[in-house]
TrEMBL record:
Matches recorded under InterPro entries: Creatin/AminoP/Spt16_N (IPR029149), Creatinase/aminopeptidase-like (IPR036005), Creatinase_N (IPR000587), Pept_M24 (IPR000994), Pept_M24_MAP (IPR001714), Peptidase_M24B (IPR050659)
Pfam families found in the cross-reference section: Creatinase_N, Peptidase_M24
Name under which the protein is recorded: M24 family metallopeptidase
Secretion signal span: none
Record Gene3D superfamilies: Creatinase/methionine aminopeptidase superfamily, Creatinase/prolidase N-terminal domain
Domain Peptidase M24 stretches: 155-356
Length: 374
């Protein structure tokens, strides 16, 4: 795996160094788990990166040192003695590229460090740098992660395929009397048997009126004829996640249920029809909203439309009111309009799609008949 991904990681590191130079940063401290994995290849925790134009250090401890050496590319692994050296002191030792020049600038990931820990680190850095030389940085690596390379696309495509197959294998278990919790466990078991590293997130699987909760947790409620079913789930491959939602009606469907389902399906397709590299992402939201707001269920429509997906479940770009992002080839985004009526039920349909120069490629292919036979 390390040999396979090495050229990918080296390209990312070069791009990060170029971005650091463009922002006038001599050294960058990375604290975010997903960003560390994206840049170094290390998949564990308790890690911190110090990167400059010349040097790259991955600081960890005895629990992860061997694993970090096996997985990381382009980084010298430092095993910190946690009992005898503070994190700040260790980081300070390895900001060597910066030296002691008075004009040096050290960037740090402000969004991935709690205030107390950063104050402790900054106190150690004060021997070399003034507060003005320590620059909070937000979104630098996240912006790189928005456009997926071929290797990343392959991991998400595989994660989506696992989820597709797991749902197809689980659908025969949707019978009257089965509980939300039992079906969620069955689905998760099948994903892991098919090779998922775990769950992309806590599985959402809800029946009847409970399906009006966009992010409810599975309960002991049992399935009965006429129920809405909503399930939102995903698999994980090499840290990369899929994210898919299916809604069904079990047994006999009412006219109102059919109308809700068809409205959401039409809104989803209208949104996807706008997707193409070079098109503002807000156009997909507008297309979806035209359908939802013209329906009898306008007041119950969800506000946003989707988000990027990758090493983290909810990545940039976020397709919601105020979004100014222009879609690029290589973005992987979700399209997930929904209608949620408290006390009655809800429908959400979600796909993972890869943005291309001519439109999009659908990555999720799980069955989505409107009605499941009782």
């Amino acid at each position: 795996m390390k040999t396979q991904v090495q050229p990918v990681l080296e390209k990312r590191q070069a791009a990060l160094r170029a971005e650091m130079a463009s922002q006038g940063l001599d050294t960058l401290l990375l604290f975010g788990y997903e960003n560390i994995r994206y840049i170094s290849g290390f998949s564990g925790h308790a890690a911190y990166l110090v990167i400059s134009a010349q040097d790259a250090f991955l600081i960890s401890d005895y629990r992860y040192a061997e694993r970090a050496k096996a997985e990381s590319v382009g980084f010298e692994v430092i095993c910190r003695d946690r009992d005898n050296e503070s994190l700040g002191h260790c980081i300070n030792r390895f900001i060597q590229a910066a030296g002691t020049r008075s004009n040096i600038r050290v960037g740090f990931e402000a969004a991935h460090m709690d205030v107390a820990t950063w104050h402790a680190i900054a106190a150690e850095l004060a021997s070399k740098f003034t507060d003005e030389q320590l620059e909070p940085v937000t979104g630098m690596v996240e912006a790189m992660r928005m456009v997926k390379d071929e290797w990343e696309v392959a991991q998400i495509r595989q994660a989506a395929a696992i989820a597709d197959q797991a749902l197809a294998d689980t659908l025969p278990f949707f019978k009257a009397g089965v509980s939300e919790r039992d079906l969620a466990l069955e689905l998760e078991y099948r994903m892991q048997k098919l090779g998922s590293e775990g769950m992309s997130f806590d599985t959402i699987l809800l029946f009847a009126q409970r399906s009006s909760m966009p992010h409810g947790s599975p309960s002991a409620q049992q399935l009965k004829s006429g129920d809405f079913i909503t399930l939102d789930f995903g698999a994980v491959v090499n840290g990369y996640r899929s994210d898919m939602t299916r809604s069904y009606i079990y047994g006999e469907a009412s006219d109102k249920q059919i109308a809700i389902y068809n409205t959401v399906a039409e809104a989803q397709q209208a949104a996807m029809d706008t997707v193409k590299a070079g098109v503002p992402a807000i156009e997909a939201l507008k297309a979806s909203n035209r359908i939802l707001q013209a329906s009898a269920f306008a007041e119950f429509a969800g506000e946003g439309l989707g988000h990027g997906v990758g090493l983290f479940l909810h990545e940039q770009p976020f397709i919601k009111p105020g979004c100014d992002y222009v879609l690029r080839e290589g973005n992987i985004i979700t399209i997930e309009p929904g209608i949620y009526i408290p006390g009655f039920g809800g429908v959400r349909l979600e796909e993972d799609i890869l943005v291309t120069t001519s439109g999009y490629e659908l990555l999720t292919h799980a069955p989505k008949p409107m009605v499941l036979e009782a």
